[in-house]
Amino acid sequence: MPGNRPLDVQVSRRRVLQWGAGAALLGLTAGCSGTDDAGSTIGPDSPEVRAYAESEERRFPGGRPVAYELSATQSDVDIAGTRTAAWLYNTQLPGPILRADVGDRVQVRFRNQLPESTTVHWHGLAIRNDMDGVPDVTQSPIPAGTEFVYDFIPPDPGTYWYHTHGDLQRGRGLYGALIVDDPGAPSAYDTEFVVVLSDWLTERTPAEVFDQLRGGGMASMPGPDMTSAALGGDAGDVRYPVYLVNGKPPNDPTVFTARPGQRARIRLINAGDDTAFRVALGGHRLTVTDTDGFPVEPVDTGSVLIGMGERYDAVVTLQDGVFPLVAVAEGKGAQGFAVVRTGGGAAPDPAAAPRELTAPPLTVADLRATGADRLPVVDPDVTLEASLGGDMKKYSWTVNGQAYPDHTPLAVHSDQRVRLVYTNTTTMWHPMHLHGHTFAVARPDGSGPRKDTVIVLPGQSVATDIDTTNPGQWIMHCHNDYHLAAGMATIFSYVT
Ligand SMILES: [Cu+2]
């Protein structure tokens, strides 16, 4: 989404009239089916969004106010003794862990001290549309030097995260974990490791890498092809100089400490721009319990494969000693690394390759939603197609043949079961993310896990089921930040 160009959609006079003056003042132009029978667009300032917010307040009476201050600034960060330029939240990499209970009233006073406009997106949370933080879709970009108060109720417990939704800003360091606790649920663990994985540029900005990709150059360092069987081919577009775990490189790793025998909940978040990670903890099997904030039937594995935007939670019973937590940059010949320490001993080798990595990693196909979290099995009211395309000569990535901000919205009505089918016609995998909803991976028996981001492999289709319960304008996009910048997005658009 280069710059703040208005979105190139067919703007009907009818929509402008019905959406009203508020949207006109905001300059919001997203969404519009352009067809009369689709009705008028439900924008972020529409009465339907206010009604949703009010119903959430009624659903969670007495939610505590939880206030956070968040500033985005130009800073620099120490990567193993080398200062590199970064854009950070509260001068931390990753940003601070934000935490609240389900139903709390979260108010984040955000100050933009960057040299350009930005927004903050609360990834995975089904919150009111006007707080979703997507520039020119749910709000005007927050200008440099100004502030904006985000005010929302997290409706579901689990592992979430927040990040900028500005053009190619995330890779500069603007991301952090957002954890939502359920005070009513007994915790099945003794300690918790929040693990934010990312890929890090040391010499160039993401915008410079993007220009290079657009110019037809390889944005990678010299090396073998970046391919992965688990990802069905191309693993990524960019080879990074370093991969980070909680902002730390392998030669200066994060150390998680605990006691032997404790049950640790590991909350894995892939905040990378262009890198899938294959994660294992040496000497331990992972019991995966949740993905994208929602529970699954627990399943044991040696490793998990996690795409950008996805989260996996796993519980382990910790052994006595010192263990490598390895995040292999899938197909890229390098890894992120951290240490789990419960006893004495020398730190493991940052290049450790635990045997847990040898078997194929767990993927979404191995997961089943717990009964309580399944969507009821019903026939879809409407089926929508999202054909994922690309033109490598131009480094253009598309949905249904259009490169965002060019788009034809996927129009839906409230209270429908929508089946959204992603079909990947490219030779590269795409982690597709829908804002404002947690869909179910469609299966005939309804066992598909709930997700907000799902990997679609080359040449394959993934069907997702969505109950349209959160009116507004929701961006749907590839979570590879270069693919998003090159157009792989559209709008999931509620209309009346
Ligand atoms: Cu993509």
Automatic annotation (TrEMBL):
Q: Which SUPFAM superfamilies match?
A: Cupredoxins
Q: Which GO terms describe its biological process?
A: cell division
Q: Report which superkingdom the organism of origin falls in.
A: Bacteria
| Name listed for the protein in its UniProt record | Multicopper oxidase with three cupredoxin domains (Includes cell division protein FtsP and spore coat protein CotA)
Q: Which residues form the Plastocyanin-like domain?
A: 74-183, 192-330, 385-492
Would the keyword Metal-binding be found if you checked this record's keyword annotation?
A: yes
Origin species, per record, is Rhodococcus jostii
Q: Which Gene3D superfamilies match?
A: Cupredoxins - blue copper proteins
